[in-house]
């Protein structure tokens, strides 16, 4: 007959500390977990938790692929090798064009979609952190983009085509001026509402990716055009500002059609796959060369991160400095620079 040796409090505390450092809970030791759902069962649950439209659009493509090919597999079954194969398949199947990066973007998005899914599974207690295979599969290394700032003569050619072709030159000209002045992303323009306009100070409120929002200076001419557009096309407060003549809100397809049409008139646009983001590159490159990095950063609406270091906090550009850069770019005085 054997007798168990009583455990004192010091030993218990030491054991708890060790388990905590290893990320193990008492429930883990007992392996008390619900049966893992299949991908077909769990992906709809995760899909409903996505808040950002951009994240949803990027990840949902890959979740649909997982639902098709791993529908019956429990989510705790795939190994690191399985995840790696899925990443490489996404890379091979990626759409190829002149701006493609050998499918790196698709592979990165697939890993991002799987990591999001498995983080939710961890939070729901369906898997342990150490059992998450997506954590151990690296994303492909990013390579430099071919996008660059365009010279003024090329931007003028693009603007001329937009103003003289198509079924709504007023709309297309307004879009190009909005992106040229503010350097905003396409999503920021589509999120713009009539109540985001401050005519007195010539500011618009932009909401862009990463849930980053900011007030951005615009010229008096652009502000007048935005107000006129909202009034004549029936955009009410709280609704999307940019609209077709019919009053229907525009979508990303308007941008796609615009650049396809410009590419037909200007072969170099089609060959280089110029897009709205190239306009953003052009504006921000000019601001950086003329006014420096801090003002270009504020102009772009980039969020600060830990990798930027402490200095970025102290050299943060003011709204008045951004307005001065805009006034110089457009050749129009701005209320914020006049007040200063």
Automatic annotation (TrEMBL):
Lineage: superkingdom: Bacteria
UniProt-listed PROSITE patterns: TYR_RECOMBINASE
This protein's UniProt keywords: DNA recombination, DNA-binding
Stretches that traverse the bilayer: none
Nucleotide-binding is among the record's keywords: no
Tyr recombinase domain boundaries: 145-327
Cited InterPro entries: DNA_brk_join_enz, Integrase-like_cat_sf, Integrase_catalytic, Integrase_recombinase_N, Tyrosine_recombinase_XerCD
Pfam families per UniProt: Phage_integrase
Family: Belongs to the 'phage' integrase family.
The protein's name in its UniProt record: Site-specific integrase
């Amino acid at each position: 007959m054997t007798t168990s040796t009583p455990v004192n409090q010091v030993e218990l505390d030491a054991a708890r500390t060790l388990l905590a450092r290893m990320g193990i809970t008492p429930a883990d030791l007992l392996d008390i977990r619900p049966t893992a759902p299949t991908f077909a069962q769990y992906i709809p649950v995760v899909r409903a938790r996505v808040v950002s439209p951009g994240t949803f659009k990027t990840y949902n493509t890959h979740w649909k692929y997982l639902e098709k090919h791993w529908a019956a597999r429990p989510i705790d079954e795939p190994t690191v090798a399985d995840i790696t194969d899925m990443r490489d398949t996404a890379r091979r199947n990626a759409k190829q064009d002149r701006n493609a990066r050998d499918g790196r973007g698709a592979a990165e998005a697939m890993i991002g979609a799987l990591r999001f899914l498995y983080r939710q599974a961890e939070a729901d207690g369906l898997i342990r952190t150490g059992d998450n295979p997506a954590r151990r599969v690296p994303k492909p290394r990013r390579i430099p983009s071919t996008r660059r700032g365009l010279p003024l003569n090329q931007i003028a050619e693009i603007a001329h085509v937009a103003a003289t072709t198509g079924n709504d030159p007023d709309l297309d000209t307004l879009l190009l001026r909005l992106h040229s002045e503010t350097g905003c992303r396409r999503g920021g323009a589509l999120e713009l509402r009539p109540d985001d306009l401050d005519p007195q100070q010539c500011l618009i409120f932009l909401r862009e990716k990463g849930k980053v929002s900011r007030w951005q200076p615009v010229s008096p001419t652009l502000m007048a055009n935005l107000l006129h557009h909202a009034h004549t096309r029936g955009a009410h407060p709280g609704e999307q500002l940019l609209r077709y003549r019919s009053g229907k809100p525009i979508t990303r397809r308007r941008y796609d059609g615009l650049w396809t049409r410009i590419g037909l008139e200007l072969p170099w646009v089609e060959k280089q796959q110029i897009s709205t983001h190239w306009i953003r590159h052009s504006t921000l490159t000019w601001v950086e060369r003329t006014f420096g990095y801090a003002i270009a950063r504020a102009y772009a609406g980039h969020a600060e991160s830990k990798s930027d270091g402490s200095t970025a906090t102290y050299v943060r550009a003011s709204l008045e400095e951004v307005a001065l850069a805009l006034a110089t770019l457009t050749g129009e005085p701005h209320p914020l620079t006049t007040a200063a």
